[in-house]
Design brief:
The complex is a heterodimer.
Chain A: H1 8-33, H2 36-45, E1 46-51, E2 58-59, E3 65-77, H3 87-94, H4 98-111, E4 117-124, H5 125-134, E5 141-151, H6 157-160, E6 163-165, H7 168-173, E7 182-184, H8 187-191, H9 193-196, E8 201-207, E9 213-216, E10 232-234, H10 238-247, E11 253-259, E12 264-271, H11 284-293, H12 303-306, H13 316-325, E13 340-344, E14 347-350, H14 360-366, H15 369-380, H16 388-400, H17 423-430, H18 454-465, E15 469-471, E16 476-479, E17 492-494, H19 502-514, E18 529-535, E19 543-550, E20 557-563, H20 573-586, H21 592-600
Parallel strand pairs in A: 2-10
Antiparallel strand pairs in A: 1-8, 2-3, 3-4, 3-5, 6-7, 8-9, 10-16, 11-12, 11-20, 13-14, 15-17, 18-19, 19-20
Helix pairs in contact in A: 10-20, 13-15, 14-19
Chain B: H1 7-10, H2 13-34, H3 48-68, H4 72-76, H5 78-95, E1 97-99, E2 102-108, E3 111-113, H6 115-132, H7 141-160, H8 164-169, H9 174-179, H10 184-202, H11 205-222, H12 226-254, H13 257-266, H14 278-288, H15 301-304, H16 316-347, H17 353-377, H18 395-413
Antiparallel strand pairs in B: 1-2, 2-3
Helix pairs in contact in B: 2-3, 2-16, 3-18, 5-6, 5-7, 6-7, 6-17, 6-18, 10-12, 11-12, 14-16, 16-17, 17-18
The chains are: A alpha+beta, B mainly alpha.
Bound molecules: zinc ion.
Zinc ion is lined by residues 337, 351, 354, 368-370 of chain A.
Chain lengths: 621, 419
């Protein structure tokens, strides 16, 4: 009977084959049809270790090292492997509490339990010393070499800018960046990011289940080297920058100095400022918050590029130039000054007492308001134009050809336009074409809606010293090789004013220093040219402004100084500028009394240490 | 009568070749699974592959001994062997060493011996012996009860050792009973019940009951003798519905948490890749990353760097899958199928009923180990720790399967003499 059941072997064999078939189908699915397992396998064993290059160094114009790198370490964690560790000990070593530890572990685990994430970023070399010896006791934790920015001198914070972690937006938009990478956030660090960052390298390592290194993957076939960033040679003069920052201590304002023949920025001072070393590494976030919260002194506000001031009397130089170009002003043009310029309705633009009448040189030297109101009227009411509007537009175009009211395009981030009001602005304010030269007469003496940045003022001084042209101001003179030339700034930009008209203005500026409004700041051994200005400030005391250049021929330095809430240009800005010129041209300052008085003056903390010494002592401008 | 010496000319060389191929492949895969750069010699006796080589040499001696022993010895001493390993299974509960939660090992010298591995072979012998008498008819309730008891008894003892995997193996003998004449419905039920059980956990149980009702109703309406099939249809409906509900109850209230997790992992309800799902996920990663051609011998990163747990024993198939790819895995599966089918074919040419049924027992044991072990590695079955014959590291398993197979080869070689 059992023999008759021999057919059953076929059923049993059928069951065997069915199982074999199921297995084969499953193998086809797992090994051939889907990719996720091979990806997971690589995730298991391959560790991509980024080799971070050192960022490029930054030098000053005399070869001094300004910005460099110091070794730092990121403590990384792979959450799945971080088991049975002495939490309290680790917290103590990196200076966090238990809650913070838990918070970071959860964050890392949410990113991925199997992959590394940064647990504590940018540990300094000193702190790493303590951690290093004990690191073996914390499985799942390891360090990755990074670098920290370091500043030899605590100067020029706004110009250098700082670096920070690349944001998700940036990572999405630029394939170079990965989570945890650093990127220049502003200043030179941002504008030269692509040169400074260098090129990251990658090492592919094989690890076992306990994350122990098992050597390089396929003999390093997929490894790439890191290349350090390009070094930058800045045009900053470290001595001058540091000296200017000392002069501006406890004052609000800015100093910008430019080498007119090249457009190289010699110093760019913003005050109040901060120590660039504060915005480095893992202390950056905390310090940055404190700086942001300081709304009284606004240390993060880069006044040199972003603050707009009415240029005051310094703008009379532009009037003089544009007036000649327009053919409505000649060196011999004289106007008398009855102590002011009447603008109708009984109102008038006041002027101080001075000899009258004056020709052009005299008017610059004395800074006569009446004279330049008349010049401005003659430009705007010029009968060669069909309308006030047309004349104004022409005037505006010529003014802007000096780089005023628009970005100059320097190689530091954050620059603002300034403001030379457009006709539309007056239309809106007074009604379409319902404004006349008298309506906007304050522009003629650099007051009102006009706004100029300290950089633009310095560039104006440079342009005048060049007799009609400038190079776009820039902070990086050479890239990679010290003796090369930054190719972005070689072109000469000419103003719309014929160079022939500049000499008379330069003469006037020389007289300003030798016997005019700034004569108190005269330096015996240097013949320099300048112009004082006072920016009317509806919110408080007027801003003291001075622009200058020296020497008068073969000019080496053009400068602008703005001291907020300090009164006449001659009182603060002019002496500070003269000290800067002396420092740069003579390398040392002989007028120690003046230097000390300027450095020690505190104009922002409400303490009256002032140079009130004879308000009347200085000529108003 | 042919001389005893002639035995070596009449053994089935196909089976022996399959055996040698599988054993050697197993050894190389253990080498690959345990391999590390500091111990490269495959004969290093301090490493698992060195020890496995010793086990293989010992099993060759065992195989040759069995081929020399009078084949009648095994049928005559079947009950004795069975009794001996039953006794050992009891003794090990008291005197054994506990390894990984199972108290199923004897420590002899440096090696551990697992009586459960040999109990499977002993049960195959005893079952064949009992059903091998020509007058035994499995349709007789008494015969069936004794046959089932022979199977259940060692399984229960092994369960007491907390070795659930090895106990499950004994289910395979239902194939022997089937070949001996057990109703096909029992086999069908054993195949349907697990499927229904899985469905019960995946599909809403009320929908499932409704489907079962429809099927039962269909059976009833198609039948001619409605009075009789009404009872059958009703019984099927009630039994299957009862199963659906009891599976739910069992999973939620009877199983221990780790067992419940394993089932959830299998059903895809548990994606906790760090916990219960870790083994299976890593196993699939290793196999899946082998692709079509495999990464090459000793090139498997997942197994070499220990990402797969139990990779030299329960998950040895991962090494095959990773280093030898689809091709290698398919060859291993084909070799096992070849072995099992060859045994079944040979079994049916036996004149002796004992030899025939023993052959079925051998094939069934290979089948269940093959099915559960590879099914587990491929994530089709829950994680059940039983070895893949000839591949998984360990002396007991290798020796037990060698003895199991070679007793059959010996019987087969003498098939004309044995009645
Ligand atoms: Zn006047």
């Amino acid at each position: 009977m059992e023999r008759a059941l021999a057919y059953r072997r076929l059923i049993i064999i059928g069951i065997f084959l069915a199982v074999g078939l199921i297995f084969t189908a499953r193998l086809i699915y797992v090994q051939i049809l889907v990719d996720k397992y091979i990806l997971s396998a690589n995730n298991n064993v391959l560790r991509y270790i980024t080799q971070y290059p050192a960022r490029g160094l930054i030098f000053d114009r005399n070869g001094k090292l300004l910005v460099y790198n110091e070794a730092a370490y990121d403590l990384m964690v792979i959450p799945r492997q971080a088991k049975n560790i002495d939490t309290a000990e680790l917290c103590r070593l990196i200076g966090i509490d238990k809650d913070e530890f838990t918070r970071r572990m959860i964050k890392a685990r949410n990113y991925s339990p199997y992959r590394q994430s940064i647990f504590e970023a940018q540990i300094t070399r000193e702190n790493y010393g303590f951690l290093e010896e004990k690191l073996f006791r914390f499985p799942g934790f390891f360090v990755q070499s990074r670098t920290l920015r370091k500043y030899t001198y605590s100067i020029a914070a706004h110009t250098f800018g700082y670096i920070g972690e690349a944001s998700p937006d940036i990572i999405e938009g630029d394939s170079y960046y990965r989570s945890g990478d650093y990127i220049g956030v502003n200043g030179i660090e941002k504008s030269y990011e692509s040169l400074l960052r260098g090129e990251k390298g990658m090492k592919v390592r094989v690890v076992d289940v306990l994350n122990r290194d098992k050597g390089s993957f396929q003999e390093g076939r997929y490894d790439t080297l890191a290349y350090a960033g390009t070094n930058l040679y800045s045009s900053l003069d470290e001595d001058l920058q540091e000296y200017g920052e000392k002069l501006m201590a406890n004052k609000k304002g800015s100093i910008v100095a430019i080498e007119p023949s090249t457009g190289e920025i010699l110093c760019m001072i913003t005050s109040p400022t901060y120590d660039p070393n504060l915005l480095v590494g893992n202390i950056r976030k905390k310090n940055y918050r404190n700086l942001v919260l300081d709304t009284v002194y606004q240390p993060l506000f880069n006044r040199a590029l972003m603050a707009m001031y009415p240029p005051g009397s310094t703008f009379k130089l532009v009037d003089a130039l544009v007036g000649q170009q327009e053919g409505v002003l000649f060196p011999t043009t004289t106007y008398s000054c009855p102590g002011g310029f009447s603008i109708g309705n009984g109102k008038m633009v006041g002027c101080h007492s001075h000899p009258s009448p004056l020709n052009l040189i005299g008017a610059i030297q004395i800074s006569c308001n009446t004279y330049f109101c008349r010049v401005f009227r003659s430009i705007i009411d010029n009968s060669s134009y069909t309308s006030t509007r047309q004349a104004y537009e022409h005037w505006r175009k010529e003014v802007m050809s000096f780089g005023l009211g628009r970005k100059l395009g320097l190689d530091v981030t954050g620059e603002l336009n300034g403001n030379i009001p457009s006709p539309a602005y007056y239309d809106k304010y007074h009604g379409k074409d319902r404004w006349r030269s008298m309506t906007i007469i304050s522009l003629g003496i650099g007051q009102g809606e006009i706004g100029i940045t300290p950089l633009q003022l310095a560039n104006l001084a440079a342009t005048i010293s060049n007799r009609g042209w400038y190079h776009i101001p820039h902070i990086i003179r050479a890239i990679g090789k010290k003796d090369s030339i930054n190719p972005g700034f070689t072109e000469k930009k000419f103003t719309d004013v014929n160079p022939a008209y500049f000499d008379i203005v330069v003469e006037g500026m020389a007289d300003v220093v030798s016997e005019g409004t700034a004569r108190a700041s005269k330096i015996d051994s240097i013949d320099f040219c300048g112009k004082t200005g006072t920016a009317q400030n509806p919110h408080g005391k007027n801003h003291s402004i001075f622009i200058a250049f020296a020497p008068k021929l073969n000019t080496k330095i053009a400068i602008s100084v703005v001291v907020e809430n300090a009164g006449f240009g001659a009182a603060w800005a002019a002496p500070i500028a003269s000290l800067m010129l002396e420092k740069y041209l003579k390398r040392k300052v002989s007028r120690k009394d003046l230097e000390e008085r300027m450095m020690n003056a505190d104009l922002i903390h409400g303490i009256n240490t002032g140079n009130e010494i004879g308000k009347g002592h200085f000529l108003p401008d | 009568m042919k001389s005893e010496k002639g035995i070596f000319y009449r053994i089935d060389l196909v089976l022996v070749s399959l055996y040698v191929a599988l054993v050697l492949m197993g050894w190389l895969n253990i080498y690959a699974a345990v391999y590390n750069d500091s111990h490269q010699a495959i004969t290093d006796l301090h490493q698992k592959y060195g020890k496995q080589m010793v086990f293989i040499l010992a099993s060759l001696l065992l195989a040759i001994s069995i081929l020399i022993i009078d084949p009648k010895f095994f049928s005559q001493f079947a009950y004795f062997i069975y009794g001996f390993f039953l006794l050992m299974s009891v003794v090990v509960i008291f005197a054994g060493r506990e390894i990984a939660g199972s108290k199923s090992w004897f420590a002899i010298g440096g090696f551990g011996i697992q009586p459960a591995e040999f109990a499977k072979m002993a049960t195959a012998l005893a079952l064949a012996k009992f059903l091998g008498y020509l007058d035994r008819n499995i349709k007789h309730p008494r015969t069936l009860v004794i046959a089932v008891s022979i199977i259940i008894l060692p399984a229960l003892l092994i369960l007491l050792e907390h070795d659930t995997g090895s106990a499950l193996v004994f289910f395979c003998f239902v194939l022997v009973l089937y070949r001996a004449g057990l109703s096909g419905y029992v086999l069908l039920a054993l195949l349907v019940i697990p499927v229904l059980g899985v469905l019960a956990l995946i599909i809403n149980k009320y929908i499932l009951v409704a489907v079962l009702f429809t099927i039962s109703g269909f059976i009833y309406l198609r039948s001619r003798r409605r009075a009789r099939t009404l009872m059958i249809a009703l019984a099927i409906f009630l039994a299957s519905s009862g199963l659906v509900f009891s599976v739910h109850f069992a999973v939620n209230h009877v199983l221990e948490p780790h067992q419940r997790q394993r089932i959830n992992v299998l059903l895809g309800n548990n994606t906790d890749l760090k916990g219960a799902g870790y083994n299976v996920n890593q196993s699939l990663i290793a196999i899946g990353s082998g692709r079509f051609w495999g990464k090459g011998f000793l090139q498997g990163t997942q197994t070499k760097y220990n990402f797969v747990p139990e990779q030299s024993t329960d998950f040895i198939f991962c090494t095959v899958g990773e280093e030898h790819g689809f091709i290698g895995s398919f060859i291993v599966i084909a070799l096992f199928l070849g072995l099992m089918i060859r045994i079944v074919m040979n079994a049916d040419r036996q004149r002796s009923k004992f030899s025939r049924l023993y052959g079925y027992g051998v094939a069934s044991l290979f089948f269940i180990h093959f099915g559960i072990n590879i099914g587990m590695a491929l994530g089709i079955l829950p994680v059940i720790g039983i070895p893949l014959p000839f591949f998984s590291y360990g002396g007991s398993s290798l020796w037990a399967f060698t003895i199991l197979l070679f007793i059959f080869i010996r019987q087969d070689a003498m098939r004309n003499e044995l009645v």
